[in-house]
Amino acid sequence: MQKLWKYQFQWDEVVPPDIAIEWKTLSQDILFVKDFKILRYLFLDPDNQFQLHGFSDASEKAYAAVIYCRSVSNTVQIKVQLVIAKTKVAPLKTISLPRLELCGALLLSKLMDFTCKAFDIPISQSHFHTDSTIWHYVSGNENPADLATRSVSSSAILTSLWLCVPEFLYKECSFHPESSVPTLNDSVSTLNEPVPGERCCVQSTIAANHLPNSNDLFQKYSSLSKLKRVTAYCLRFVNNCRNSKDKETGFLNTTELTNAINVLIKSVQFIEFNNEINALKRNQALSCRSKILSLNPFLDNSGILRVGGRLRHANIAYGHKHPILLPKRPILTDLIVRHYHEILLHAGPQLVQSSIQEQYWIIGARHVIRHLIRKCVKCRRVRASISNQMMSDLPTTRISPSPTFLRCGVDYAGPFQIKASKGRNSKSFKAYIALFVCFTTRAIHLELICGSEEHRVRFLSRIKEDLRNQIVRRRFHNE
Ligand SMILES: [Zn+2]
């Protein structure tokens, strides 16, 4: 199915031969599923000790997790049985194998949590096995989850490790002697009871090549406020880890949100204006090739690059005098423009630009703002042109030459309040206008019809009467 999605086939299209063969093999193989039997009884003798053993693995096609229950009786009789398994296909987006292995590990953790909660009996130990040394290491040959990450025929799975269970689980004492890493339960108990005089050191190493690109973070969120809040929570987590005594909890405050946006801006500026920032830090002059040389940039107290400009003595806010410099390419700039466009209720480019410039100076702002507003779905919907009906052919009377007002239309407009004479005290009264339009020349003739509603009715009845006359009917068209 994933392959069909990948190649974007329509439902009525013929699939290529290799996929057709694969499908045929699968449909023939699925007939053997009826021989596949899973025992529902889990030999739950309450006197036994129960352990859960989870295995996870990943391949480029899929990642999977499987859990077995190992029961040890008082007479040291060991039984192992499959409890639950879950497989997920790898995402269409290319992901590295180590990351997929982590996805598999996460799947196993969730599955183990679910299984522990579902069991009514006490579980003495939970063990996690994978081909990583973080948990119990298990080779691919001994890992049943490996089968779920690649295509295995139904007939083969009956005799495979999946149902026959890894042999080392039947061993009496340590089920996996090679592993020296403590189990999850052990580690928790050790952490709770610190040994006096002993110090535990944890060292973490991050390879520079694996540092996430800040663009990856920006691409995940389509709104500036969400990105800001996520960053603020991440920063809070880092601060809380560093200062375990004075932890920050509860809602995010303004300072945290401001710090978050500053961090995001600095990361963007560091990538785009690296040379300029380095030169300013060393108190050197900017390169004459620099695009921002004319803006006279400087670094403020928090290390953000701002426009120097010529407004130093202006009586306006600091952010307006020295706006933050932003390049036009990064996604952060787009998010800021979109944010301003939305809080200004989908305003036009000029208003958005002037509002943004109270805080930020985007290079090529006009073009960036216009481009983004053009792409705004809501604005596009509002701007959409209204569809017009096709007009019918003109009547013969309109396009045949004839004397003026030989054939005309009549319309009636009003009422209007008009005065009989000039001056303040003159009385005003209702009046109507009869409009005669010549069909041939489009010349118009206006006739004032004074009087009350009765007059109007009388005029209309007169016109109707005229229309009854055959001769006049040819000449008048009342709309
Ligand atoms: Zn809009």
TrEMBL record:
GO molecular function, one term: RNA-directed DNA polymerase activity
UniProt keyword terms in alphabetical order: Nucleotidyltransferase, RNA-directed DNA polymerase, Transferase
Keyword Secreted: no
Integrase zinc-binding domain mapped to chain residues: 332-384
Keyword match Nucleotide-binding: no
Protein name as it appears in the record: Reverse transcriptase
Organism: Caerostris darwini
